[in-house]
Amino acid sequence: MLNKRKGIILLPLLIYLLIGCATTQTERIPLPNDVRIIPPSSGIPKEATVFSGKWSGVWDGILKHILVVEEINPPEANVIYAWGTAPNWRIYEPNSVRVKGTYADGVLNLSLSNGAKVTYRMLADGTLDGAYELRGNISRTKMVRMKE
Fold this sequence. Notes:
It is a single chain. An eight-stranded antiparallel β-barrel has the order 1-2-3-4-5-6-7-8. The protein is 16% helix and 43% strand. The protein contains two helices and eight strands. The chain has 148 residues and is an alpha+beta fold.
């Protein structure tokens, strides 16, 4: 049996553990069931082929994001743009959409249905630099390649 003093100390610890466990769980970002990454053909420039695959990042350290470049055949690219939740940005449901993108001059460009323009550039360290622009506001992410 706990005395009152120990209970006062243990109660905040219990609350911390319960809340901490709930907030540290990995958020699942939905992707379509038929994701298929098609390896680029040999005739495509290497600077374009490096985009092929699955990438993960976090917009402004707030919103988790997955980019899947299913097929790249410049100037076109078929991608899946997926996102998690960010209640402080009023994004309450994770989701994904397929988007036709374009590739030119080392930049993968997407135009989303909400009017956002998204660009990805390959950096020398093998990561992607992402910029999301909507109504004059710009969010940034650094994306790393995910295992397939």
